[in-house]
Design goal:
Low-confidence stretches: none
Order of helices and strands: HEHEE
Number of strands: 3
Strand order of the largest sheet: 1-2-3
Number of helices: 2
Helix content: 10-25%
Radius of gyration: 13 Å
Mean pLDDT: 86
Largest sheet: 3 strands, parallel
Distance between the termini: 31 Å
Shape: globular
Strand content: 5-15%
């Protein structure tokens, strides 16, 4: 999927909603990793759980979601 597949860009949630549909699920069932304020807002607007990664822009407000420096801080486990 590319930017040409959607009419409006972030923070509009349509990109995440369309991507989830193409994967056969809903945005509410997705975990979004984002590094920009508009992307974080788009994920939240789509109803997804969002993790901010490398969020260091001094002009943006603190993200309204968990924050990690990079992917080395996370671990996925099957239970």
């Amino acid at each position: 999927m590319t930017a040409e597949d959607i009419e409006r860009g972030k923070p509009d949630p349509s990109g995440y909603i369309l991507a989830a549909e193409k994967l056969g699920t809903s945005a509410e069932q997705c975990l979004v990793f984002e590094d920009a304020a508009a992307g974080i807002q788009a994920g939240l607007n789509a109803g997804s759980d969002v993790v901010a990664i490398g969020f260091a822009s001094p002009n943006d407000a603190k993200p309204a979601c968990p924050l990690i420096s990079d992917f080395r801080e996370i671990e996925f486990r099957l239970t």
